[in-house]
Amino acid sequence: MAADLVIRGGTIVDGTGAAPYPADLAITGGLISAIGPGLPPGREEIDAAGRLVTPGFVDIHTHYDGQAVWDSHLAPSAIHGVTTAVMGNCGVGFAPVHPGEEMKLIELMEGVEDIPAPVLSQGLNFTWESFSEYMAVLDGKPRDIDICALVPHAAVRVYVMGERALNLEPANQGDIAAMRQIVAEAVQAGAFGFSTSRTISHKTLKGDHTPTLRAQEDELIGIAMGLKEVGAGFLEVVSDFNLPDAATEFAMLRRVAEACGRPMVFSLTARHDRTEVWKELLALSNQAAADGLRIRPVFPPRPIGILMGLLGSQNPFSGAPSYKAIAHLPVPERVAAMRDPAKKAAILADDRISGSNFPLITRLSFERMFPFGDPPDYVPHRETSVAAKAAREGRSPEDVAYDMLLENEGQGFLFCPLTNYADFTLDASEELLRHRNTIVGLSDGGAHVGFISDGSFPTFLLSYWGKQRGLPVEELIRRQTSDTAHAAGLPDRGTLKAGMRADINVIDYETLTLERPGMLYDLPAGGRRLMQRARGYDATIVAGQVTYRHGEATGALPGKLVRCSA
Prior knowledge:
This protein has 566 residues and is α/β, with parallel strands linked by helices. It is built from 19 helices and 25 strands.
């Protein structure tokens, strides 16, 4: 019997880290049925001569919790080779929820992940209360990729504790028992684990901290023991590692992992204010791994940076009263107004900080603010910064940044790295890439729709670290296929071998490149989102069906909600 699809003449990069080799690959019934030379013809064929044939990418840190309800096409991840995404990270999400309390979760997601409340209010129908009911809604919609869901701590805490959770009060033993049961039942129903946030950066637009910020150790252990009881799922943690210090916070998280025996991942970035802490946390996680604990840091392959511009939701002057007066205007009219010398003088004279609703505004500096360019430059030279240009020209940085916003009729962006660029290099990411216990991720696909476009991380990993920096392509593929699949608990994908799920990318490695981000206005309520496309993906295949050809959707929607099993 002929195979459904044969990918012929490509170079197999199987996801294990093994050396690439030439072969054909056959797919039958959504699974890989054979790999080898000279396979018989299939009902359909893809000519992969000169192309890499890889497993589909598995991204374990995304935020499609809302988009997956209303959208069958989970871009940007789907257009960057991702075939499976884990969502529900950072402790935020939309279930469980008491009827009438939906806005509490919407406001938190709006502030933490920059998904506007009107978009979420219109896009979500909230026909669910429990997490299992939410998963049933997800289960009923076909998609272009598979999704896996984590149970968000903030939603669980608010569901159990109400206003006490929002007031950051400690949980009592009854609260902990109730949260533990909710999480255990959700994992039994198919959730992939539990996520929480301990960072002051996660706030609503009103400035309220995430309800999980001050959760005590007994609460975290109590909830984690629900995973132990079920015998499934992992824990995802975001922390500042501030109080009282990184080692003490890590030791507490280590005790949580020891108590429940379940895998734990945590976000690790090279901060600009505490430049050596990432090295300490890397050493601590490596020691934990050597001691037999499954605690792994997840790090970004490039700076996590904000794109500030008139097209997006933030720019350096968004908080200035004189700018707010024209912020509602279409970009062409806003550009015309801002070119008026009197308006420019007024905006530059305003206090742009106190009036801002952007919680990260104080972390931005003109020393690390750069013109983004086309093609986009994620590794800009220090001398190209706004501050450096201002010094050369004898102008204020604000004056230079203002003029840069107006270039190209207001269509451009300023790139503002927040982490992983303290010394104006990617040395931290390079070092982290050399440790087997680390995981590449933090793309935040589906989130920060107005000022961050990091869903393109998988493409950057290959196009920059592979093509420009010469790291072995087989290791870079392993990093975002078998490694991430194993970390998430997905044994049926991530490698190319007979019997595995046929999630596959066919990549023209020589032409693989990132395009400049643009703005789409296709979210519910006319909401906008940054979208960055790529060139070089000949085909992306999910469960044996071609979902994208040369970056364009085919209309096939074989993706589903994946349910965790013990």
